[in-house]
Write a structure and sequence with these properties.
It is a single chain. By secondary structure, the chain is of the alpha+beta class. The chain contains twelve helices and seven strands. The chain has helices spanning 7-15, 19-27, 33-44, 55-73, 78-93, 101-114, 165-170, 199-218, 224-238, 244-251, 260-276, 287-308; strands at residues 119-121, 124-125, 128-129, 132-146, 149-164, 179-180, 187-190. The strands form two sheets. Strands 1-4-5-7-6 form a five-stranded mixed β-sheet. It has a two-stranded antiparallel sheet with strand order 2-3. A hairpin with a 2-residue loop joins strand 4 (132-146) and strand 5. It is globular, with a radius of gyration of 23 Å. The protein starts with 6 loop residues before the first helix and ends in a 12-residue tail after the last helix. Mean pLDDT is 92; it is low at 316-320.
Length: 320
């Protein structure tokens, strides 16, 4: 007897941008027929979506939709698909040949949306084009408790999305980017993705990111690995509902030398192993055990970074 439908398998295909494989998988299961037909209508038959916007904005969004179909279903080389998208935008705006797609987005596409009351962020996500376009923003400031003090941290919540880039599009809104940071010191959160009362938001987003802010304020030269190591330890210290150690154990991969997240997770696993000694098992630890060991490793880390990085003298320790 064959295995039943698994949502995780479908998401795996979509995360890789493989719409054809996703459709082939859906076709295996009669109970997914309605879902499959949505894909067939959009990608096989090219019956594109119409958005809650005026005619010109829908014309611009159609150009992006055509690009998505070219790349994720028809398998067109990404460079050629990008070139074709640029040519369609140039024709729409009656531009001479020459401007890059990034210039066209910033100088023509973005103003068209912003002029009608939308916020617009163009460029690439994971190597593929697809804009983020939303209606409203709300800035909230949180007072975040951390092991070494309290940090004020601001989050900008975005709502009323017209477009949430390519992954949202090819998954029919089931998955996609939950937020980003663009260098302005804020986390931009897609409001519909987060339950602000959840531990995931309070700990894995707020405390994690606030720890980054605190560390960078004190030690501007801190490496990505050290930043992630300390922020992940903070997650372990404050997580009471989830065993985050299992996740970090799965992320640990010392071979990924350029990946600060993976290196940090590897250090955490190694640190726990050293604390437990021979015969100790990570999967046998209780939440309280995890919190205690993480607190010990964090204290050791505080001494390590203090000796490793020059500190800003204008920042009061423990009272940011």
């Amino acid at each position: 007897m064959g295995k039943g439908y698994e949502q995780g398998i479908l998401q795996g295909y979509l995360l890789r941008g493989d719409v054809r494989a996703a459709m082939a998988y859906l076709r295996e299961f009669p109970e997914q027929a309605e879902r499959y037909q949505k894909y067939a209508s959009l990608f096989e038959q090219g019956r594109y979506l119409t958005y809650d916007a005026d005619g010109e904005l829908n014309e611009l969004l159609l150009i992006y939709q055509t690009y998505y179909r070219d790349v994720f279903y028809l398998g067109l080389d990404p460079a050629r698909a990008t070139e074709a998208m640029g040519a369609r935008f140039a024709e729409h705006f009656r531009l001479d040949s020459g401007p890059s797609i990034d210039e066209i987005e910033e100088e023509h596409v973005a103003p068209a949306f912003r002029g009608r009351g939308f916020h617009f962020l163009g460029g690439r996500t994971s190597g593929r084009y697809g804009p983020y376009i939303w209606r409203t923003e709300e800035l909230r400031t949180y007072r975040v408790e951390l092991p070494e003090g309290v940090q004020d941290y601001a989050v900008k919540f975005l709502d009323g999305f017209l477009s949430r880039s390519w992954l949202d599009y090819i998954s029919f809104g089931e998955t996609g980017t939950g937020g980003w940071s663009n260098g302005d010191g804020l986390i931009h959160c897609v409001k519909q993705v987060y339950d602000t009362e959840s531990e995931s938001f309070r700990v894995s987003l707020l405390k994690h990111e606030a720890q980054h802010a605190l560390d960078l304020a004190r030690y501007p030269g801190m490496t990505s690995e050290d930043l992630e190591y300390r922020a992940k330890l903070v997650e372990l210290i404050y997580s009471e509902e989830r065993n985050m150690m299992n996740r970090f154990d799965g992320e640990a991969d010392a071979a990924k030398k350029s990946d600060g997240h993976a290196l940090a997770s590897s250090r955490i696993v190694e640190g726990f192993a050293a604390c437990l000694g021979p015969g100790g098992a990570l999967d046998a630890l209780s939440i309280k055990d995890i919190q205690a060991i993480a607190g010990r490793l964090f204290a050791e880390s505080a001494r390590d970074v203090a000796g490793k990085y020059p500190a800003r003298t204008d920042v009061e320790q423990g009272a940011l």
